[in-house]
Design goal:
The complex is a heterodimer of chains A (420) and B (403). Chain A has 420 residues and is of the alpha/beta class. Chain A folds into two domains: 266 residues, Crotonobetainyl-coa:carnitine coa-transferase, domain 1 (Rossmann fold, 3-Layer(aba) Sandwich), CATH 3.40.50.10540; 106 residues, formyl-coa transferase, domain 3, CATH 3.30.1540. Helix content of chain A is 40%, strand content 14%. In chain A, strands 3-2-1-4-5-6 form a six-stranded parallel β-sheet. In chain A, strands 9-10-11 form a three-stranded antiparallel β-sheet. Chain A has a two-stranded antiparallel sheet with strand order 7-8. In chain A, helix 6 crosses helix 9. Chain A is elongated, with a radius of gyration of 26 Å. Chain A starts with 13 loop residues before the first strand and ends with a helix. Chain B folds into two domains: 263 residues, Crotonobetainyl-coa:carnitine coa-transferase, domain 1 (Rossmann fold, 3-Layer(aba) Sandwich); 90 residues, formyl-coa transferase, domain 3 (2-Layer Sandwich), CATH 3.30.1540. A six-stranded parallel β-sheet of chain B has the order 3-2-1-4-5-6, sandwiched between helices. In chain B, strands 7-8-9 form a three-stranded antiparallel β-sheet, with helices on one face. Chain B has a two-stranded antiparallel ribbon with strand order 10-11. The two termini of chain B are 40 Å apart. In chain B, 58% of the residues are buried. Classes of the chains: A alpha/beta (420), B alpha/beta (403).
């Protein structure tokens, strides 16, 4: 069993994490910030342990890399909170905790007798944070949801994707992460408020609302201009002529992101890019003669911009590798960025130079694994990825016996009854 | 009513574009007094960005700016002017938190770096959020949301397997980072409450974004497998996608993760013969024949309005959701129920819908108030917070400190 160091911005707090896939990020972030986060799983382990990818592709609840990624810096116990004995033990835990984070369907905690009011009877200033797809009330409250349906309803899918294909999402589910981060913020704000006012409260995070924000100006454009924002693909279309220029470009060994801004933003990269291309004889006279500060994409006809600017840049990028463009781009302050795959992210020099990655020991696998480091830095490392995710019931003895003082005999009986 | 969560907390925002301003705006929704420092000499870039109300370009007319800058004051202050910096320092002396989203080194150049501000107010909390953080060779490299998504592994994962990446719309990361920045800030605030100590937060935006790619990063670290973009597919669900419905550009997302949901799906579609086809009887069979299945699903959805598809799926326990467009969002029954958009009158733009944040507190509701015009609260901040006399204020104004 691993011992977790108690340091960090949130060190004095104990948080009970009952979440499923929709809320795991919340406890992970709170744990990285130093809180004692106890992941409570049903006996046999959480369903999220069945989500891939898996360590060496071995499908096993102790080998889910998805689970690993979202449960760092937590301790773990098993407990069936649907049973009478399980509820009593949970209530004991609530008495010695500061907050509970859950992502059951709305009302479920009330139905099993563990709703906010019931928990207040155990601990009057407890904070409960609930993460739900649509919030605690309203017409869609009981709707079934998944990442793709939340992208849909939030307005985000509608503006993502190529115009000639269906709207898109990001292939790695994101909505639960956005909401999980907000739930962590809500929990800390409630802890702060309790510190000032002495009272706890119930915090609600709606995944739908979190995702609407990512949908950018979709609603704003309708509200202010009565226009519908539609998916532009990997290019941007600028009014009034509707001139379209790419955001994603091919290079010799992959892809790069570059946008040909006009105005002040254009003046950052475009003159330096023109000089760079000119050194290789690829800058056109139009590019060389351009006052980039006055360049207005939306008022340049499509065929002109394609012939004199976009096609030459495209040829230039195709002559170079991603790393060549990135390194030289940095030197020349041209904002041509690599489109990295997972390998590119892990191997990039900057994050290594910053000593971002952390190696966490997985003694049961006899292996250490590279993880993303803290999301924020302070000088005393008050936010850090402290340890790997817990095994199923890894801290049962530590928490039940030592901290709750439940006898070993009693624990065995609970285990046989399938409660722990 | 209980006080708002962050009541009594004052924040100075040295923000730019979306990340810094949105972090501060959310804090404002929960009661912090946020003062945005900006200048007419070099206005915040999103004040100059579309869409503009009624297409009238103007510094106080950008709906984009408005959306990301609710619930705060605006103080015009020219930091190129020595007295501008002097006033900024005086303001920080009366603040709890400083939010900086300029390029690394800019605040130091003004004499507003953490060490300068700490000397002024030892328990100040400061967050600096730039692309690559405050250390490393790339620290002052300019960039924006689109390029940050690219270098963080997001863009590569959004698109169709047979094409180059599409990437999510616009500056996706601008709506991810403020969540983690606000988390850092409120955690530091609670830390200060308990210990009396201020903190400096180095928030490298790239290090925030890769948190959202972590399962794919572990997959490479352990299995040397590069996660690829999958269109709308999911490795563990079928059907799973966005399906065309009746009408122009109308779609419904449907996701079937298990056999119970598949039975619900079959019931919802009225059990057409293909739903009993052995190519689709189990999840693994459906995954093998997913292209055929998707065509058949769409032949069914195409005949029906998206809403009807969503409701019949939901009635049968299947996750489904219509694709709302910008207009639909204003009528979405759930968002309307939640009063998610607050319609507020802005002096230049007239009535504008402002979105809220996703967090609601049972004892301290959030309150969204309209975005400020540039420099709208300069006089208020100078006289009420800094305690300048009328003469002093007039003197500074004449000398261009507020330009």
């Amino acid at each position: 069993m691993q011992v977790i160091q108690q340091t960090g911005m949130l060190a004095p707090y104990r948080i009970l994490d009952l979440t499923n896939e929709m809320g795991l990020m919340c406890g992970k972030l709170l744990g990285d910030l130093g809180a004692d986060v106890i992941k409570i799983e049903k006996p046999g382990g959480d369903d999220a342990r069945r989500i891939g990818p898996f360590y060496r592709d071995e499908v096993d609840p102790e080998k889910s890399l998805y689970w690993f990624a979202l449960n760092t810096s937590k301790r773990g116990i098993t407990l069936d909170i649907e049973t009478a004995e399980g509820k009593e033990i949970f209530k004991k835990l609530v008495k010695v905790s500061d907050a509970v984070v859950e992502s059951f369907a709305p009302g479920h905690m009330d139905e099993i007798g563990l709703g906010y009011d019931a928990l207040c009877k155990e601990n009057p200033d407890i904070i409960v944070t609930s993460i739900t797809p649509f919030g605690p009330a309203g017409p869609y409250k009981d709707f079934k949801a998944s990442d793709i349906t939340l992208w849909a309803l939030s307005g985000l899918s509608f503006i993502c994707g190529d115009p000639d294909r269906p709207p898109l999402r990001i292939s790695l589910p994101q909505s639960f992460f956005h909401a999980g981060a907000d739930a962590a913020t809500g929990t800390v704000m409630a802890l702060y408020h309790r510190g000032v006012s002495g009272e706890g409260q119930h915090v609600h995070v709606s995944i739908l609302k979190a995702m609407e924000r990512v949908a950018y100006t979709a609603h704003t454009l309708w509200d202010g201009r009565a226009k519908i924002l539609r998916r532009p693909g990997s290019a941007l279309k600028i009014p009034p002529l509707g001139t379209t220029t790419p955001v994603v470009w091919s290079c010799r060994d992959g892809y790069v992101a570059f946008y040909l801004f006009g105005g002040n933003m254009g003046a950052v990269s475009n003159p330096a890019l023109t000089r760079w291309m000119d050194e290789e004889g690829l800058a056109t006279d139009v590019m060389k003669g351009m006052d980039w500060r006055k360049f207005d994409i939306g008022r340049t006809p499509q065929d002109e911009i394609d012939r004199h600017i976009v096609q030459p840049i495209s040829r230039f990028f195709r002559n170079h590798t991603q790393e060549e463009l990135w390194k030289e781009g940095v030197r020349r302050r041209v904002m041509v960025y690599p489109i990295y795959d997972a390998r590119g992210v892990l191997e990039n020099e900057h994050l290594r130079e910053r000593r971002f990655w952390v190696e966490l020991e997985h003694s049961p696998l006899d292996h250490s694994i590279t993880y993303p480091g803290p999301f924020i830095r302070t000088d005393k490392k008050l936010c850090r990825v402290r340890c790997r995710a817990p095994l199923i019931g890894e801290h049962n003895s530590e928490i039940y016996e030592k901290e709750l003082r439940i006898s070993r005999n009693e624990l065995e009986a609970l285990s046989i009854a399938g409660i722990i | 009513m209980t006080k708002k969560i962050l009541e009594g907390i004052r924040i100075a925002e040295f923000g730019w574009a979306v990340v810094g301003p949105l972090t501060a705006s959310w804090a404002g929704n929960y009661g912090a007094e946020v003062i945005k420092i900006e200048t007419r000499t070099r206005p915040d870039i999103i004040r100059t960005m579309t869409p503009f109300k009624d297409d009238r370009a103007g510094i106080d007319n950008s709906l984009f700016f408005g959306r990301e800058n609710a619930s705060k004051y605006s103080m015009a202050l020219n930091l190129k002017h020595p007295d501008g910096v002097r006033l900024a320092r005086r303001l920080v002396g009366k603040c709890d938190i400083v939010i900086d989203s300029y390029t690394s080194g800019v605040m130091d150049k003004y004499g507003l770096g953490y060490n300068d501000l700490k000397a002024l107010k030892p328990d100040i909390i400061m967050i600096s959020s730039c692309m690559f953080g405050q250390t490393g060779e790339l620290r002052s490299m300019p960039g924006y949301g689109v390029t940050l998504a690219a270098v963080s592994g997001i863009t590569y994962l959004c698109g169709w397997p047979d094409r180059k990446p599409t990437g999510p719309y616009g500056s996706y990361t601008d709506y991810l980072i403020p969540r983690l920045n606000l988390l850092g800030v409120v955690s530091a605030l609670d830390y200060r409450r308990r210990t009396g100590k201020g903190l400096y937060l180095d928030a490298a935006q790239v290090e925030a974004v890769v948190q959202f790619v972590s399962p794919a990063l572990l997959d490479y670290a352990v299995n040397q497998r590069v996660a690829e973009r999958l269109g709308n597919k999911s490795p563990c669900a079928a059907p799973h996608g966005v399906y065309r419905c009746r009408g122009k550009d109308r779609w419904c997302a449907i996701a079937v993760f298990n056999e119970e949901q598949w039975r619900g799906f079959c019931k919802a579609t009225g059990g057409p013969p293909w739903s009993r086809d052995e190519r689709f009887v189990t999840m693994s069979a459906r995954k093998r024949n997913e292209e055929d299945l998707n065509r058949l699903v769409e032949s069914w959805t195409y005949e029906r309005p998206a809403k009807e598809v969503m409701f019949v799926m939901q009635k049968n326990g299947v996750p489904a959701g219509v694709l709302n467009n910008g207009e639909d969002l204003g009528h979405d029954p759930q968002l309307v129920h939640d009063r998610y958009y607050t319609r507020l009158e802005h002096p230049e733009m007239g009535m504008v819908d402002y979105p809220g944040h996703s967090i609601e507190f049972s004892k301290a509701p959030q309150e969204v108030w309209r975005s400020p015009c540039l420099g709208e609260h300069t006089e208020y901040v100078c006289k009420e917070i800094l305690g300048l006399s009328d003469e002093e204020f007039g003197h500074y104004a004449e000398n261009g400190v507020f330009d």
